Amino acid sequence: MFITDDIKYVGVNDHDIDLFEGQYDVPNGMAYNSYLICDEHTAVMDSVDARFAGQWLDNIRTALAGKSPDYLVVQHMEPDHSGSIHIFMEAFPCAKVVSSAKAFAMMAQFFGTDFVQRRVVVGEGDTLSLGSHTLTFVTAPMVHWPEVIVTYDSKDKVLFSADGFGKFGALDAQEDWACEARRYYIGIVGKYGSAVQTLLNKAAGLDIQTICPLHGPVLKENLGYYFNLYNIWSSYAVEEEGVVIAYTSIYGNTKKAVELLARQLEDKGVKVTVNDLARCDIHEAVEDAFRYSKLVLATTTYNGDVFPYMNTFLHHLTGRNYSNRTVAFMENGSWAPTAAKVMRAKLECCKNLTFADTTVRILSALNAESTAQLAALADELAR
Ligand code: FEO
User: Fold this and answer.
1) What is the pTM of this model?
2) Same domain, 207 and 268
3) Which tens digits make up the pLDDT trace of 269-291?
4) Closest by alpha carbon to 171, among 372, 26, 7, 379?
5) Which of 1, 3, 267, 364 counts the most CB atoms within 10 A of its CB?
6) What are phi and psi of 294, to 5 degrees?
């Protein structure tokens, strides 16, 4: 597959994987992208997961048609991209590896060697000439690891963006970009919004016509759409007005209250998304919390804390700098309900949260008082 006249796709699709990074469901698999730049000198951009090393090397050999690659550019050392570096270096003994100093330190950790005789260390603004193509390296620490660089090819105006602008799903999956790119971004890079903002500012100074990420499709059209979403996500801004209700329910009483609240909100024209944290993909629920403007947390008091799935959910939110939203609480307990207080305390570290005036307190099951609180909360959230 040609990206431009000189740049070819040599990556692989992974339909064998169950959990990406050991925790994310990827029902449509995953792509590990790699690109070959053909010029006077040839450069391969990143490797792939080690399970696909053979297929990747075949792709490179086919694309090179008898030539040997001169460089392997390593932008990121997470094993989904770095897992085949040492296999490449054995297969092509004349090739050099180009990467950041921090990445070479990680190569020593992963492979027991940092290829000292065959390495080219690059940093911010360094360039590598391949002939007519000049690659400029831009450091992007914490997008998503500290060693990350991205690479700009000024001839074809291509940004090789490492994990940036990636998504879950193999390249043969027919699915919406934003849905799986958002879940990927919030889950994997979400904590590092300020690092992404720094990179976006650097990218604003470049004339970019094509983005070649390490996961997901190559982006060529309407790039402003993708940059705008990345700006929203990395600044923790609200993407859409709406209420997300994230709940746990043991015997169905909290669930009944959640369903009533959802109906009341919908009757008022509010967009509502409901997630049962014990049963949904929790990373979809986290994605929803970051997407919409308001969040209702409903759970039971449990062992003096909150129900475990809610605990996990809150941990995912705070770990990713959840902020700039309105949050409301619903608690249920049969003798000493404290879940609202506990949840609020867990969110104290979050910046710029507005807590709703109304808290719904259910004592075992809905009664007239808690039903009135639900109605008041629906009014407040719909305002
Ligand atoms: Fe796709 Fe952070 O590795």
Assistant:
1) 0.96
2) no
3) 999 999 999 999 999 999 999 99
4) 26
5) 3
6) -135, 150
